[in-house]
Amino acid sequence: MMLLLFTRRLSPERGSVTLMVIIVMTLLLGLGGAFISLSSTEVDLSKDYRNGVAAQYLAEAGVQWAIVKLKTETDFVAKTGIPPGVIKTSAIKNEGTPTAGSYTVKVTGSGTGRIITSTGTVGSGKTAAKRQVILRVTPPAASTSGLSIDSYSNY
Length: 155
Fold this sequence. Notes:
Strand order of the largest sheet: 1-2-3-4-5
Strand content: 25-35%
Radius of gyration: 33 Å
Order of helices and strands: HHHEEEEE
Number of helices: 3
Helix content: 40-55%
Number of strands: 5
Largest sheet: 5 strands, antiparallel
């Protein structure tokens, strides 16, 4: 009789709710991790895009610097005809911001044609971006004041 008091018959469904809760929680945890990973990737992509645009603007700023020099300084035109040409690296622009960077301009050529190659660089490490603009121009002759742009390439 004593044996009957301590013996209980267990139902086969007992504990299945706990198992179901564990499975659902595991699935929710996996979904949460996927969304965190996705948002982290989106942040990296937007940083890369921002740095690329900033590098493009810096490269174009370098081209503008060279165009102004070619239009206004006759001795600059003469210097660009002597190898290796004129190379200028700007000071850091936007210092202290996420888009801090610089440009390097090289102006080469001979005769009437000049090639302006400007490279904008923003960031460092994983999110660094470089963009290059190449412009072929004809400097103004002594009797004219215009600068003729022969071709424009963006890399």
